[in-house]
Amino acid sequence: MSDDKSNMVTCTAPVNIAVIKYWGKRNEGLILPINSSLSVTLHQDQLKTTTTVATDRSFEEDRIWLNGKEEDISHPRLQSCLREIRRLARKRRNDCHHGFDVAGLSHKVHICSINNFPTAAGLASSAAGFACLVYTLARVFGVEGELSAIARQGSGSACRSMYGGFVQWIQGERDDGKDSLAQQVEPESHWPELRILVLVVSADRKPIGSTSGMQTSVHTSALLKHRAECVVPKRMGDMIEAVCQKDFTTFAELTMKDSNQFHATCLDTYPPIFYLNSVSQQIINVVHRYNNHYGETRVAYTFDAGPNAVIFTLEQHVPEFVQVVQHFFPSEINGGKFIKGLPVDDANLSEGLKQDVGLEPMPNRISYVISTKAGPGPCVVEDHSQHLLGSDGMPKKIL
Known about the structure:
The protein has helices spanning 76-95, 125-141, 148-154, 210-220, 222-245, 248-268, 278-294, 318-328, 351-357, and strands spanning 7-14, 16-20, 25-27, 32-33, 37-41, 48-56, 63-66, 69-71, 108-115, 166-169, 182-186, 194-200, 299-303, 309-314, 339-341, 368-372, 379-380. Helix 1 runs parallel beside helix 2 and helix 2 (125-141) packs across helix 3 (148-154). It is globular, with a radius of gyration of 22 Å. By secondary structure, it is of the alpha+beta class.
C-alpha cells in the first residue's frame, strides 16, 4: 500500500441479545421493524466482531473477507452500508470549509472481519458484524454522528449493537426510516450485578435464516400482528422501567414471556418454523423448576432464532445455576473448556434441589457455556499490530 492517501482502521463491536424481540419488517429494503425492541449488549471480552478497513489508491475494487474467506461484496446489505457512509463522507467534505479532505474518499476499500464466536448459529453474529463494519467505515471516512440507522440497513438488530448496556430500537413511523433508530436506555455500568450465560446447544448454521423466517411470519401469522400492535408497546414500557429500577423479577419474567411469544409466532407461521430443539425445551424446564424450588424468579432464559439459550441471572446465583446446568447436561469436557469467559466459582447442589428439578440428564448436548455480563459499544483498536490486513492490504496469514 502506498503511504500517500492510504488509511487503515480496526474496531471491535459487540453482540446484543434482545429481551423484547424484533421479528418482522414493515419495509424490507430499509429494514424497518413492525415493533420496537430492547436488548442487552454483551461484553466484548467474551463475544465480539473485529473488523479492519483499509483504503488505498492502489486497490482496484472493493473486497471483503469474513472469517478468513473472501465473500461477495455486491450483497445488497453490504452495498447499502458502503453507499451510505460514502454519501455522508462526501456531504461532510462538501459542507466543510477550506479543503477538508477525507482520506481515500474516491479509493476502493478492503474489509476484513472475524468473529470470536460461531457465525450464524443464533448468536447475533450479523448484528455485531454490521455494527462493526459501519463503525469502522465511519472512522476511516471521517463520518460522525448518528450511525445506528446505517447499521440497521445492514442487519436490523445491528443498530442496537452501536451502543453498550441496555438499548432500545425505536420502530419509528416515517416511511423513509429516519426515526427508526437505536437509543441507549442505560449504560453497561448501570446494573453491575447482572450476569449472562450463553448455553451453546449448537454451533451449526440455522436451518431457516432470520430474514426468510420473518418474511413468512409477516405474511402468515395472525399472532405476529397481535403481538406487534397489542403486546409489545406495553411490554417495552414495562421492560424499560424494570431495567431502570434494576427490578430483576420483572425483567426476568418479561424476558421469558417475550421469548416464548416470539417462538409461538414462529409456530403460528405457516409452514411453522422450529428454532428450538429438545435441549432448548429441557433448558426451559430446568429454569422454571429451579425458580419454583426457591419460590422466586432467580434465573431467566431467552432464545433467538436458534436453539442456544441465553440465561440472565444475578451474580450471586451464577455458581449454583452453572452447577445445575452441569448436573442436568453433563459434559465430557470439564473445567475451563466447558465454561468460557468470566470465572465461575464452584458450588454444591442440595439433594432437594436436584429432586425438585427432577429431570433426566441429557449428556453432551450443551457444547459449552460462555459466562459474561453487559458491556460497552463499539470501540477503536489503537494497537496497529492488531490490524487484520497487512501492509499490502490483504488478510494476514494468521486468519
